[in-house]
Amino acid sequence: ALMWLGRDGGATSTSTFVPPLPEDVGQNIIPVYCSLLAAVVVGLLAYVAFKCWHTCRQKQQLAKARAAELGTAAEGEKLHSDSGVFLDTHSLQEPHQIGKAPRLETRPYSSVPQQQREEVERLLESGGPSGDWRGLAARLGYGDEAIGTFARGQAPARTLLATWAATEGATVEALCLALAAMGRQDVAECLAGPGDASSMV
């Protein structure tokens, strides 16, 4: 503030004069604000585009991982079924395809009449020069532990065949091939008939 002495010797003060801002200063700030706003908008658009691309990439990787997991599980199940108690009938048929033997019945073993099954069980439990039910159990893929469990029962051959009949691929054909492979042609004839059983030799 400016002060000066009046005629009476007293001090007199006046307010400071502030010159107004030029009009071109306000006009120059507007382009700066517009540039900052455009930069923010572009940054947001770039961020959204990056997030969308990252999300799509994660979904593709997840889909590939699931597909690989399903393929591995299917292959593992196939290997498990091949190494389990199921009988590989194709490997047993290969040596006999040269003679062009007639195809045996592929009906399930569980459909065999009860009297015929009891006769098969009796022959297996009575034993023979080529092996008894234990040899058949080994041919069907059962290990020593399972064979020991069957042996503790009163009718091990019946327990063996009943357990095997509940598995996949338990057909009359498969059982006859296993019996023929172990030399129990008499049991195979009882199960499938003399004509069909002799054709497997």
TrEMBL record:
Q: What compartments host this protein?
A: Cell membrane
The record's InterPro entries line, in alphabetical order, gives:
DEATH-like_dom_sf, Death_dom, Neurotrophin_rcpt-DD, TNFR16_TM
User: Which SMART domains does this one have?
Assistant: DEATH (SM00005)
What do the Gene Ontology cellular component annotations say? cell surface; plasma membrane
Q: Which UniProt keywords are listed?
A: Apoptosis, Cell membrane, Glycoprotein, Membrane, Transmembrane, Transmembrane helix
Q: Does the keyword Cell membrane apply?
A: yes
What are the recorded GO MF terms, alphabetically?
Answer: coreceptor activity; death receptor activity; nerve growth factor binding
Chain segments annotated as transmembrane: 29-50
- The residues covered by the Death domain are 132-195
Q: What is this protein called?
A: Death domain-containing protein
